[in-house]
TrEMBL record:
Keywords: DNA damage, Methyltransferase, Transferase. This is Cysteine methyltransferase. Pfam families: DNA_binding_1 (PF01035). NCBIfam families: ogt. The keyword Methyltransferase applies. Gene3D superfamilies: Winged helix-like DNA-binding domain superfamily/Winged helix DNA-binding domain (1.10.10.10). One of its GO terms (biological process) is methylation. InterPro entries: MethylDNA_cys_MeTrfase_DNA-bd, MethylDNA_cys_MeTrfase_DNAb, MGMT_N_sf, WH-like_DNA-bd_sf. Residues 78-162 form the Methylated-DNA-[protein]-cysteine S-methyltransferase DNA binding domain. GO terms for molecular function: methyltransferase activity.
Length: 165
């Protein structure tokens, strides 16, 4: 599949320092945000929801304290939403471990990791702020140390002032 065809599923693609973010919308809500490698072409927003998301992503890139205010689709199980709410409460510049989140919501670290990987709205629900007890951990259901997802997680943590990863 060519990049232009792959990009057609997105309502906008925003270039950011680590690559891109694809935004999918429908009926005025954000359906999904996806981290994309650099080879995806930037794409202007095709609707108001995608335009709002693109502008807010760029505000976050400019100022990591920016708080998103986007119309998000209702997705995920009750458990996933509990995990995502806990993640959304982690302040910029801080991290929590899978175990800490699990203890907070009375669950198991592995289940928390699965919910992190199922996050439909990265950046808005900052799952990059969740790490393993002994290091960086995985990201987007991947743990390849030199792979794209973990490079995104490292960039985001550094952008937010978290050292050591």
């Amino acid at each position: 599949m060519k990049n232009t065809q792959a990009g057609d599923i997105f309502s906008a693609i925003v270039h950011v320092p680590f690559g891109g973010i694809g935004i999918r919308t429908s009926a005025g809500v954000i359906l999904e945000m996806v981290y994309l490698p650099r080879h995806f072409r930037e794409k202007d927003a095709i609707d108001a929801a995608a335009d709002k998301a693109a502008k807010q992503i760029l505000r976050y890139i400019d100022k990591p304290d920016y708080r998103f205010k986007l119309p998000l689709a209702e997705v995920g199980s009750d458990f996933q939403r509990r995990v995502w709410d806990a993640i959304a409460s982690i302040p910029r510049g801080e991290v929590r471990t899978y175990g800490q989140i699990a203890k907070f919501i009375q669950s198991a670290p592995r289940a928390v990791g699965q919910a992190c990987g199922a996050n439909w709205f990265p950046l808005v629900v900052p799952c990059h702020r969740v790490t393993a007890a002994g290091g960086l951990g995985g990201f987007s259901h991947r743990d390849d140390e030199d792979g794209f997802p973990l490079s995104v997680k490292r960039w985001l943590l550094a952008h937010e002032g978290v050292d050591g990863y």
